[in-house]
Structures are given as structure tokens and as C-alpha cells.
Amino acid sequence: MNDQQNLDNLRHSCAHLLAAAVIELWPDAKRTIGPTIENGFYYDFDFGDIKISASDFPKIEQRMRELIKTWEKFEMHQLTPEQARKEYPNNPYKHELISEFSKTDHKLSFYKSGKYWDLCRGGHIDDPSQQLKHFKLLSVAGAYWRGNEKNKMLTRIYGTIFLTTEELNKYLMQIEEAKKRDHKKLGKELDLFFFSDLVGPGLALWTPKGTLIRNLVDDFVWQLRKEKGYQKVMIPHITKKELYEKSGHWLKFANELFKIKSREGHLFAMKPMNCPHHTQIFAHIPRSYRDMPQRYAETTVCYRDEQTGELSGLSRVRSFTQDDAHVFCQNSQVENEFNAIWDIVKSFYSAFGFQLKVRLSFHDPNNMKAYLGDEDGWKKTELTLKSIADKRKTGYQLAIGEAAFYGPKIDFLAQDSLLRQWQVATIQLDMNMPYRFDLSCVNEKGEKERIVMIHAAIMGSIERFLSILIEHFAGAFPLWLTPVQVKMIPISADQLTYAQQVADLLSKNGIRVEVDRRADRMQKKIRDAQLEKVYYMAVVGERESASETVTVRERSGKQLEPLKLAKFVELVQQKITQKSVD
Q1: DSSP 563
Q2: 472 belongs to an annotated ligand binding site
Q3: Which of 264, 354, 372, 542 has its CA 20 to 30 A from that of 248?
Q4: CB atoms within 10 A of CB 402
Q5: Strand (E) positions, 197-310?
Q6: Global pTM?
Q7: Selection from 115, 84, 142 nearest residue 19 by Cα
Q8: pLDDT tens digits, residue range 263-317?
Q9: Is 275 annotated as a binding residue?
Q10: How far apart are CA 410 and CA 77, in angstroms?
Q11: Cα(31)–Cα(93) distance, rounded to whole angstroms?
């Protein structure tokens, strides 16, 4: 058993302990499910009219510590469905699970520790009384039963547990830092984006400052792509059902699509991805090998009907923007095109100080029904990706079952300043879409040749990428991304004219600047500018006005010597051009 499996077993065992304590404290509460998740576990309960909050955590944790003294081991018992239902009187949630599980199993497994037992398929630790010690309840939230908003809202209690006190404390400190950096909190404080009840959940609205940052990162991706020969294309936001039936997306994603019915009775869908549309741009005229490769890029909004309970700030939304690109090429061109995209990914993420890890995401041979195409085709395609990664002399991890349903991919993982790992860019090799749409070119021999398709997203979803970026920098973006790069702070009203003259000079040189015209004290203006995460505060008083200089204070608190205006402009422009992250 590997370390991760041991940790999962520890956390699942603690979910049992949480449920045992809750049932003792609130005997009428109905248990549902308690799985492990990344960094912890949760358990969902129906408390009826009782409201549970974090203020109840101390007594729950105390009962958990009392109970664990009697938990020597986890004993497995097997019950018939009829026996199992008797263990949960008046609990429709467990009855639903029992009915579901009993379709394949004649007997159901229960695990017992102390006086508590629960329906469970297993995965526990050997010595609970000694190992279930270093835990902490973290938060409480509402969650629909089985994630369906048509079902009843339950109470979800989140917790975590580690093998040692040191690991637990380190994680709790990380959580506190993450709360300070929460992109939902900072997005509001820095006036970058927000959500409106009238517009709807999962549909972000971007302010001028937030839109500026979006455009800057998107322009950066486009510049890198343009250097590699990409061309911009544009597609509509809806499509007939038939396009997604042909691509295979309708069968796979029908329940996640926003659907529209025309007055004439035709069924359309809001696009959840762009690749099927782009195949039609390639296919609209005959192609020769001389036309290959065709490289299309488009930043466009996509839509998915995510369930309300699964939405989370910018990390999971219903409307998201993809910096999408597709390459249509011959087999002989695949390696060069992959390497070109890999270079773009490396250049882009280095500008933010991210170190990338590589993951080869391949299909699960034991679950071929989840994928388009046949086993042999998948193996050949995956060998191509492995060869490319090997030649780059880059270490990588292999992830079986993480492929897209139409092809394997190279995923890039970035570690942020809190040591959290995020899957960011992806390059996918697709043999199936060209087959389904009969995409081909006339090759050098004058013969029809099936082409291949490469899917490439550098940021993926701009919304999700910016949620990562906001938290990585705690809202203090690098200078080139900071919405207000310089704040002019006149010491008194007498210097307002000079402050505006300096601001005009900076603006003419492409520097984003604002003048603080308030009658407040200089110290308050500086403090407010720091809260706004402005990079430079340029203070001007009588001395600066007379000598045509500025006294500059950096966001970090570092004070610079008074600078001549031309020198200050040069300093700022150089730092912007270099895309420095400090």
C-alpha cells in the first residue's frame, strides 16, 4: 500500500469517527456519505431543522476524542439488503444507496468500530485508537444530496487529519494563509470581478481593472502564438445538435449543455468547447500538404450547465473563457507542433515564476467504453506523446485514466506560493475527431491522407487561471499586470498640478497611473494605495516640484532615492518589458 492510500484510509476512517460523534450528539440526524477528498474528508448529514455551525465543532471534536479510546479496529460484517435497511430506520439516503449497491452485490459490507458501524466498501486503518489523533474540523457548508439541486440541501462538515501534529499544524497554517489569499475575497477588495444575483450564479462580471488583467494575459498568449505561426479565427456561441452528435460530445456531455430550441423547432446548444466548430473551418475547403499545418487560435467564451452546489468563485463557473487553439497537421508534423506549443507554455508560465511539472495523461485500458476509438489507436498515440516527452529530457508522471475522451494529453502542473499544485496548460493529441469528421489533405504523393488534430490551451480557462494567479500573488501582481502601476500622491493641494503633469508624462509612455486628489494626509494615501496593491507610490511635495523629481515608494515598502522623471519612466518601462515577478 502506498503513502497516499494510507493517508486516504486514515481520512476515511476519521469520517467514520466524525459520523459516530454527530450521531451521539444529535441522535435524530440522518447520515448519508463520508468520502475522502484532497487534504481531508467530509460527511453529509440531514439535521432536520437544527442548524449546525463552526461553534459546534469543539463539542464534536471532544466527543470524537472520547469515542476513539474505544475503537480498537474496524470489523467487516456482511448484511443482506433487508438487514441493512433495518440499520437505518427513517433514513431515505442510506436506503437509496442500499438499493443501488444491492443491484450488483447480494450482500453489503458494514464496518464496525466500538459501538458504531456504517455501510461502507472499506479502506480503513488498522489501529484507529492510536492513529486517529491529529484531526481538526474545518468548516460547514450546504450541499445537495448527490450534488443535485433538485434534492434536499444537507449539512456538510469538512475535516482533515494527518499522521503527526506537525503535519496538521503546517496544513492549518496553510489554510489560514489561503483564506487571506482567497481570490473571491481579493477579487472584491481589489474590484476585479463580482457576481450578481440578477445575472445568476457562476456568471462572473468583470470590472475595468479585472478586464485589463484578463486582456493582458490573453495578449501575452497571443504574442507567443503569433510567433509560432498561429492565425486567429472566430466561431458562433451556439451550434446545432448534429455537430456535437458527430463529434461525440453530445453522448458524453448532453447533461452539461445549455440547450436552446428555435421557433422552428431546431435544437441548439451553447458551446461547451470549440474543437468541433474549428474542424469545420479546416474542412470548408480542400487542403493540400502545402497548406499544412493549419494553426487556429481563438479566445472565446464557453458554457456548461454546472450544478449550483458545485460552483466556486472563478474556479468553477458556468461561463468561462478559453484561450483555445487547434492545429491540423500531418503525422510527420506532430512532434514539431507539440514542441512549439511546449515552448509557448514554458515561456508563459516562467513570466509568473511558476515551475512546471509534466504529466502524461493516458487512457484506462480497463474502461475503453469511456473513450472514442480503439485500443491500438490509443496505444500508438500515447507512444508518440511519450517519445516527445522523453526527447525533451523532462521528468514526468504517468496518469492512467486522465486522458480526454478523444485522446491522450500532456498536462502541465504548476505549484503556487502555498505549495499547492494546479493542472494548468494542456496539449492533446486527437486521432478520433479527424476520423469522425473525415478530415484529410492531399499528400505529397497526390493521395488522400488522414490528418491529426492537436488541442492546445495555455491558460485553459482564463477565469480559473486568474483565480490561481490572484491567490499565488495574494493580489499583488507583477508590475506588468498591476491595474494601477503608479499612484501619484501630492503632499498638499499645491502640488496637484505638478502631480498631474507627471501622470500625463507617465501615461504618454504607456504607464498606468492615477492621481490621488483627496485632501487626506499623505500617510493615509500611501496606506490606501498599499491596500489597493499599487506597485509604485510617487510622492511629490515642494522639493520634488521644484527639482522635477519624484520620491518613490514600492509596494513592498522599499523607499527609493528621489528620481528625475526621465529616470523613473525608464525604470518602470524596463521592469514592465522584462515582465519581472519581483
Answers
A1: E
A2: no
A3: 264
A4: 16
A5: 204-206, 231-232, 238-240, 259-261, 267-270, 294-303
A6: 0.84
A7: 115
A8: 999 999 999 999 999 999 999 999 999 999 999 999 999 999 988 878 899 999 9
A9: yes
A10: 44
A11: 8
Measured in Å, how far apart are the chain's first and last C-alpha atoms?
43
* CB distance 140 to 158 below 8 Å: yes
The distance between the two most distant Cα atoms of the chain, rounded to a whole number of Å, is 91
Q: Is the pLDDT of residue 20 over 80?
A: yes
- The β-bridge relationship of strands 267-270 and 259-261 is antiparallel
Please report, for the chain, the start and end positions of each structural domain, with discontinuous segments joined by +. 3-181, 193-235+271-473, 486-578
**Contact between 338 and 388 (Cβ < 8 Å):** yes
DSSP 102: T
Other CB atoms closer than 10 Å to residue 233's CB: what's the count?
19
Name the residue type at position 467.
Answer: S
Q: Tell me yes or no: is domain 3-181 CATH 3.30.980.10.
A: yes
Rounded to whole angstroms, what are the CA distances from 472 to 207, 216, 350, 418, 477?
A: 21, 17, 14, 7, 9
Is 56's pLDDT higher than 90? yes
CA dihedral 242, 245, 249, 253 (to 10 degrees): 90
Percent above pLDDT 70 for the chain: 99
Identify whether the C-beta of residue 276 lies closer than 8 Å to the C-beta of residue 432: no
User: Would you say 326 is a known binding-site residue?
Assistant: yes
Take residue 423 and report the three cell numbers written for it: 493542472
Residues 42, 155: Cα–Cα separation, whole Å: 10
360 with 408: CB under 8 angstroms? Answer: yes
What is the chain's Cα-based Rg?
28
Cite the active site residues. 275, 304, 322, 324, 326, 409, 455
Fold of 193-235+271-473: BirA Bifunctional Protein; domain 2 (3.30.930)
Query: What's the CATH code, domain 486-578?
Result: 3.40.50.800
For residue 36, the model assigns a pLDDT of: 92
**Helix ranges (DSSP H) in 228-333:** 241-247, 249-253, 275-283
Beta carbons of 113 and 71 less than 8 angstroms apart? yes
